[in-house]
Amino acid sequence: MKMGSPSMGGSKRRLSSRGLGGALREQRARLYIIRRCVVMLLCWHD
Predict the structure, then answer these.
(1) What's the angle, vertex CA 32, arms to CA 5 and CA 45, rounded to 5?
(2) How far apart are CA 29 and CA 46, in angstroms?
(3) What's the pLDDT score for residue 4?
(4) Domain total for the chain?
(5) Does some domain include residue 1?
(6) Which among 3, 6, 8, 35 has most CB atoms closer than 10 A?
(7) Within-domain flag for 30
């Protein structure tokens, strides 16, 4: 999974107008969700 490509998943929605801050915030949010899912999967017991 390449995290550096701006056209990941075809989601090129006004990346230039939002700027680097918006893209960085989106990456941080995505990493937070992935991290929460991994922790949930690791800590989940039947």
Answers:
(1) 125
(2) 29
(3) 53
(4) 1
(5) no
(6) 8
(7) yes
Say if CB 27 and CB 33 are below 8 A apart.
no
pTM to 2 decimals? 0.52
> What range does the domain containing 41 cover?
19-46
Q: Is the pLDDT confidence value at 46 over 80?
A: no
**Quick check: is 42 in a domain?**
yes
The three-class DSSP label of residue 46 is coil
In a domain, residue 24? The reply is: yes
d(CA 24, CA 28): 6
Question: Model confidence over 16-44: pLDDT tens digits?
Answer: 556 888 999 999 999 999 999 999 999 98
Q: Which two tokens stand for residue 4?
A: 């550096």
Q: What confidence score (pLDDT) does residue 16 get?
A: 54
Max CA separation in the chain (angstroms) = 47
